[in-house]
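re the bet — no i am not wrong, look at it urself. input seq straight from the record:
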Amino acid sequence: TGAVAIFVLGFIMVLRFSDKVTDKGLLRLDAFLDASAGMEYSFEVLIIALIAGTFMAATGCIGYVGVQSGRRTTMCLYFSLTTLLALVLLSLGSFAIVMQHQVGPRMLQEAEWICHPKQFMLLAMKLDCPFKGKERIPLSWVEAECDDFCLNETERVRALGACDLLDVLCRAFAYEEVGGGMCLVDGGNGT
């Protein structure tokens, strides 16, 4: 049953990661990480995870054949491959934890900067994005405020998805109703 479980997990891993290889959003994220955080391995790690999933499924098949045939060499190969697989998955997990701690805060910092009202307006105007109130912003202000750094950031945001990135990053929020509750702030009059 262990070999079957390994095969199923490997198959699920392949299905889960195979569509991500061609995902435009992931490719933009990879470009963002390369440009902003100095992380040059995010896409490569996805490919390694896809290969590991395929390897896991194949290992499960070898284990199943070994159990059914009762051959010691096949079982030995199965145990060796599962050990190697465990090391690969531990490495991928460690890398994911490092990425989360290094890249997560950097991405939040970048998002805060891009979504700051002044930066958002400058970027949106330079990228000619549609938004309410655009007609009230004088082009002379945009040209005066947008220095070389702003122009470079505009090109970077354009490469990462332009107006779509700004919309998703700065204006598309999903809130979930959590219900009513008591106010935990003392209003001075007992409320």
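see?? The first helix runs from residue 2 to 18. told u. also The two ends are 60 Å apart (CA to CA). so pay up
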